[in-house]
Automatic annotation (TrEMBL):
It comes from Halonotius roseus. It comes from the Archaea. This is IPT/TIG domain-containing protein. Residues 1-11 have a biased composition (Polar residues). Residues 1-28 are annotated as: Disordered.
Length: 483
């Protein structure tokens, strides 16, 4: 079967016609991830083996050219839960712990060893949420984990609110229905309310738990918590970026070579922030030949509005002076140490140019960093300058959304031409009562081809385990309001 879009995923499949008689009965019609479900087989042939099959989906983000987000995509998946053997009376009972899995209705099939379906039943997984702790120090985080989310558009977009202000959303397009979000513990110290809502338009539907045709958010399980924020014993860190994993550049974003040769380029390390010291190595070149190393910057602008052309106008443009010219040795090799220049994020192609023609290519995965956060304290109205580099240019990485004390403020854009700068720069106004206040810049989906659900310009709180294509970090800042 073909892929299903995010408008809803059908977890059923076409099965062979029933042959053997018998009945499959489930102990419950619905339940939660982590609960026990019992399968009862009755009126079956005695002393015979059968398979219990679970019909569900696999989910992923559809991304074109490792850049343009199509939307959530789901395709059917069938797993054999177990093989059972009936007793002398043609019966069996089997207990199963519901694994981390997408929500909605799933078909369970009882099949013979040759694949014929004997009977089927349906079981619905209900989403639920847990909070890791009831108390956190100011500036630390509460972790919300959702289980059994999605895949349909009405049940895969949940919003987290702090003191009745929507911080952002979490979704479980990936990871089989499980999503994780970190929510900042912001002041003043004391009791606060953290709540999970549901709304496919990207905004909480306030009748979730009273008049929704889709039932309560977690069918009665807890979705709102009174939490305590405590005074810190030490001053918080003032600016940091989430840790980034090891990555490789995406060859999809390399420019085409002018000529195919035996020449090869490599770079060590392959990832890091601007200012990273790297070694570029070349092999397979002609001996005693000059090679121009060319750094590439993705330049241009995304088409906007209803009349936008079908393809983006972003291209990899050379920066001729960013890297040196080198000479190969008698074996046609070279190795040169360079410092990664400041630039926008994602894959930075590097080509080797000989006699004006690009003959080899490699790349560096540029990861984000904080260039400026100043000042770190001051009275209400203080202008706070924030400058980021290594952001963009791909749609899933280009537009961090800033929240101030868990309240959404606005977004910034990391796609720019060299003449306009290679960093995001913004100035925010310090506000609030005396004490520590927190600014977080979360990844967004920014734009998606599919209209629903509306994931786009909201803080993607489940970026930790459900962001498209590659890991994208959040930026975090702490500012002290003085008297």
């Amino acid at each position: 079967m073909g892929s299903n879009s995010s408008s809803g995923a059908d977890t059923s499949e076409t099965h062979p016609r029933q042959t053997d008689r018998g009945t499959l009965v489930l102990s419950d019609d619905s339940g939660y991830v982590g609960e026990t479900l019992t399968f009862h087989g009755r009126n079956l042939p005695a002393d015979k083996q059968f398979d219990i099959e679970w019909h569900t989906v696999d989910g992923s983000w559809g991304v074109l050219e490792a850049h343009e987000i199509v939307g959530p995509q789901f395709r059917p998946r069938t797993e054999t839960i177990t093989m059972v053997t009936t007793d002398a009376e043609g019966r069996f009972d089997y207990e199963w712990t519901i694994p981390e899995e997408y929500g909605s209705v799933h078909t369970v099939s009882l099949t013979t060893q040759d694949g014929a379906t004997v009977d089927q039943a349906e079981f619905e997984i209900t989403p639920w949420f847990e909070l890791d702790q009831a108390s956190a120090t100011l500036g630390d985080t509460f972790v919300v984990t959702g289980y059994g989310l999605g895949p349909g558009i009405m049940v895969n977009n949940y919003q987290i609110a702090w003191d009745n202000t929507t911080v952002g959303f979490l979704t479980s397009v990936q990871n089989r229905g499980t999503a994780t979000a970190e929510v900042r513990a912001v002041g003043p110290p004391g009791e606060h309310i953290l709540q999970v809502w549901r709304g496919y338009r990207g905004m909480p539907f306030l009748q979730n738990n009273t008049q929704s045709p889709y039932g309560k958010v977690a069918d009665g399980r807890k979705t709102a918590w009174t939490v305590e924020v405590t005074e810190p014993e030490t001053e918080p860190q003032t600016a940091w970026v989430d840790p980034m994993p090891e990555e490789q550049p995406l060859s999809t974003h390399y420019p085409e070579l002018d000529e195919a040769t035996e020449a090869e380029l490599s770079i060590t390390p392959e990832y890091g922030q601007s200012g990273t010291d790297v070694t570029i190595t070349g092999t397979g070149f002609e001996p005693h030949t000059e090679v121009d190393l060319i750094w590439h910057h993705h330049a241009g602008h995304e088409p906007q509005g209803p009349d936008k052309p079908p393809l983006p106008t972003v291209t990899a443009e050379p920066w001729p002076d960013a890297l040196p010219t080198v000479a190969t040795d008698a074996n046609g090799q070279f190795a040169v140490d360079v410092t990664v220049p400041k630039d926008i994020g994602s894959t930075r192609p590097i080509t080797a140019r000989v006699d004006g023609r690009n003959v080899a290519v490699t790349g560096f995965m540029m990861q984000p960093s904080i260039e400026t956060f100043s000042p770190t304290s001051g009275p209400v109205g203080t202008e706070i300058e924030i400058e980021l580099t290594g952001v963009g240019w791909t749609q899933y990485a280009m537009a961090p959304l800033f929240v101030y004390d868990n309240g959404p403020l606005g977004y910034a854009c990391g796609l720019s031409d060299k003449e306009e700068g290679t960093t995001i720069r913004t100035i925010l106004q310090a506000s609030g009562q005396p004490g520590w206040h927190f600014i977080d810049a979360y990844p967004t989906i920014f734009r998606m081809q599919e209209d629903n659900p509306e994931f786009e310009l909201n803080a993607h709180l489940s970026y930790l385990d459900n962001h498209p294509m590659r890991p994208v970090p959040a930026f975090h800042f702490a500012f002290e309001i003085t008297e």
